[in-house]
Amino acid sequence: MKFANPLFLIALSAILIPIIIHLFNFRRYKTVYFSNVKMLEEVLLKTKKESRLQKYIVLALRILAIAALVLAFAQPYIPKNKVNVRNGNVVSIFVDNSFSMDANSKDGNLLFEAVEAAKNVVNAFPYSDDFVLTTHDFSAKQSHILNKDEMLSLLDDIQISPRSHSMSDIAAFTANTMSYSQKSNHIQYYISDFQKNTFDGSALPDDTTGATFLIPIEVKHTDNVAVDSCWFLSPVFNVGQQVTLTVRIHNYGTTDVNKLPVKLYVNGEQKALAAVDIKAESYADYQLHYTITDEGVQCGVVRIEDAPITFDDELYFVYQVASNNNIIVVKAKENRYLKAMYGMDSLFVYQEMPERQVNYSQFKQCNLLVLDQLKEISSGLASEIGNYVNGGGTLLFFPGEDMNLASVNALLNSLEVGQYGEMVQRTMKVGSINKESVYFSDAVQKSSDKVSMPTLTRYFPIVSPAAATASEPVMMLEDGSPFLMVYPCGQGRVMLSAVPLDDSFGDAHRNALFFVPLHNVAIMNVKQGRLYNTIGVDEFAPVSNKSTSAEKVYTVKSQDKSQDFIPEQRLAGNEVMLYFHSQVEKAGLYDVYLDDVKITSLAFNYNRSESDLDYYDQDELKKMTDGQAQLIDARLKDLSKNISDSFNGTSLWRYFILFALLCIIAEICVLRFWKIKN
Fold first, then answer.
1. Measured in whole angstroms, how far is the alpha carbon of residue 496 from the centre of its chain?
2. Which of the following CATH numbers is that of domain 225-318: 3.30.530.20, 3.40.50.300, 2.115.10.20, 2.60.40.10?
3. What pLDDT score does 126 carry?
4. Do residues 224 and 126 touch, judged by C-beta distance below 8 A?
5. Using an 8 Å Cβ cutoff, are 498 and 460 in contact?
6. Of 49, 355, 371, 600, whose CA is between 20 and 30 Å from 38?
7. pTM surpassing 0.70?
């Protein structure tokens, strides 16, 4: 047995009071005069032994009553935990407020039950303790130490959140907040439905200065079908082009789904309709075909109907149909092969500039800049190329037979990419291609001995600096030296070729293997951002830098007019990074404005991690935590007392109060009903 307030035991010295009274009988005797001896018959005659026994019994009862009252105020208890929580606690409570907690229950919904359980936990601890509240919101209010009243007030404000964090993130956020408390004992409670795809028992804190408790909220399994994800098969989009959108529909239920309608809308117009069949606890990918009719930003949504779980029945997405893909070629002479590759393709807007008549102002609107066999790189051109590439542009460089090698390498050295060596007059074949490269994506299905490799009659060797560890070889010569290399540079990239598109250097420019990466590096610059962002996961997005003044700001407005905000903005070359910082609260389509002019659109969807409504039962939780955490049943009638007893131990002060009352009653009975014989 231990005491919560051991200093009260000093009051046990009060038992000396009845002892002193009994040792020194201060009762004064009164002299009574009488005339007749017969009056003596009315005097009660007490035996010496009986009178002494009565005194001792009354003395003992008074001592016990005082001692019991003192012990009650000292709050005795029988500890059940190795941690002495009476020394001061910081109590952390995680309340799961994700979408799965919005399911119905007999008391309203699961979140209501979780909040009530959290209140019972708080009420089980004294006002002297510190408290920490954590939900999936990770809000600023939850990053501070709270007192008991503040904790109870914040619990009433908890709402369903579109965000869902992993168990490790929750534990880290909670531990960081608890570190601000000066209390020595860390006690953590996790109140949740404990979904199998989100809860990880290994991420629970292993704190020797406290204990961890799990309070599972009982919920029945509900079948659910969700629009899981979508993607396009084409990397670029043009008006009149027929495209294919692949949609993944996931059936998390235990029964098969037949003929589920799936609708596709683009810019508010229905483009496709399909009826899908999905096996139980499985998924299926379906292709929706339609024709692009408009250019610019396209806002789409894939929609199904699946009650009662509806948060994952819609998947929003955004893509860009570019009106043009600008390619600028700075040339020293005419090159019919280069013009045939880019100028004759309807995907590109082809523009040539002689090396002495370069319009630098057009570089910013350029998707691909090609330097073709330039003799000299002026300092002005080198400076503009550096700004272009570091700001996110792509540079494709073809060497020239009579180029000034020192001038060219000075440019490449400033970009910190590979450089050219002296021309090698030797016949050499391309030995291998990097089929894993994005520049050969889906172009080479399998290896074959019949594939014809380009043959070079002469070439410029490419020497990569030691710092270029992130360089990517796209094509290699037979001796292992680079033939076509790509280097990251700032926000952009640089592609170097060992030969120009010229007959005197061999047949590389007439080989399909050489054409594929040169074509792909051009179409990859019609930059498609993410089709959609996930709320709580994707907290930033790049947009094109259209601002001409640092004072102008971008604003984000939802298309349904329910929300608008100003995101944090950081300039990154030709782009502006917009940081949302949990400002997006609802799934849907959002427009980005600059001075009331629409720049682009963004799509936000709820996290699909909550779609699988499968939960751990108490036996599984016990096995998973393996003694690392204790389980408490949320359905207990007196949950506060159970929580207090489960950690603080069994309180005994009530029993000592009752015993003191019994002693007082016994004393009264002894004095009132113990009749001494006459």
1. 40
2. 2.60.40.10
3. 84
4. no
5. yes
6. 49
7. no
